[in-house]
Amino acid sequence: MKILQNNIRYKLNNKRLATARAFILCFLSLVLFLLPLNVFAQNSDASLYAQPASGSITLGSTFRVSIFVNTGGRDINAVDVKVNFPPDKLQVVSPTAGQSIVSVWISQPYFSNTDGVLRFQGGIPNPGINTSSGLIASIVFRARQFGGAQITIDDDSKVLLNDGLGTNILSKTAGAQFSIVLPPPAGPEVVSPTHPDQTQWYKNRNPLLRWGSVGSAQGFSYSINKDPLSEPDFSSEGTGTQVGFENLSDGIWYFHLRALGPSGPGPTTHFAILIDSTPPAEFVPDVKPERKTTRKTPIINFITTDAASGVDHYELKFIEQDNPQNPELTPFFIEASSPFQAPELSPGIYDVVVRAFDRAQNITDSVVRLEIIDPFIKPISELGLTFGGYFMPWWLVYLIADILIVLLALLLWFLIKKHQSVEQVLADGLHWIEHEIVHDISWLKDRLRGRKHIDFDISDKKEIRP
Q1: Looking at the whole model, is its pTM more than 0.85?
Q2: Strand order of the sheet with strand 340-341?
Q3: How many CB atoms lie within 10 A of CB 91?
Q4: pLDDT per position as a tens digit, 360-370
């Protein structure tokens, strides 16, 4: 008998073990089925990028920028690329797609030198393409204005996965930044003690320019205007080697100079002068959640514009009105960006001064008044809480809370009783009205039938004969 029991127990254990093994096998199969999607196939999303990513371009010259796609190890079958560029600085000469990975164009490459935009839309036949540097298109630009020019790939661009669903897997874009410079001096070398750096903005509206003498020069011809590649005329301005200009307006000016020799005018040198004497536009900072708040670390938002050189940066300072000389708060301006979270402030009144700088270091200050107040009820750890400026220990808080609960319960009981009383009065009134109506109807019936008036008591429905 014991052997039989052991046999049965052994078979049951084997059956349980087999069931457990089957469960584990199913679980592992499921995990291994899902892992290639999440672990083993660690494919990244696609990216679009421009090459070259930076460079120095001579004003008036042309240069090529190519747009590439990195599919992140996955197969794609379509792209929709939108490229933005500054139309005042660059001009598209030709968008070319001759060597592109795109073999089917949905529409011809589109560009607008007015809006500063290009667009390329096309597809790749099945099975698509998997590449880390697939050329989509090349663009030939002309540098038309001195200064910096940024080319960006718009966030609306798409790279579509070859999955039959058109899934957009674009996650990253990288544009290009170019510096457009004047041609190297072809004539006399020009310098300026007032505006020495041709890429730097200055407040000074009165530039002074100097140049070296040329051995065979019989004089010099020069001009100043806002045309970067203008040529001075052939009239000599004399043999002097410096000239000054006064009260020039804001903007980019170009000084053009060439020597006049026995054999005629020489080549021209161009020199850029960047002037911005106007501070950034007036603005009003915004305080969140409110200018009067219990929050000790409010958020300060600010933004403004500058017409000529653009806003360079912002600086910010807190001035405590109760103690303006407080050195522990903000003894000087600190550089800040919007939104700015204030350091923890004690209750009090503060002036928040936001200072905007443009690239010529002109400044505009804006001041907003901020008041930090204590909350009406404020807990103080295990001791108690302050209520309207008065401290109460927790036992007193609980006692007052209990009293308030009892008072609220009594008020509720009173209101219920009052409601019941009103309901009773209304019920009695309705009962009387019903009685009067029945009485009047009965009287009318008796009059119409010519019978003796019979009255009814509505409460017990019995006849009452006079």
Answers
A1: no
A2: 286-288, 299-301, 340-341
A3: 17
A4: 999 999 999 99
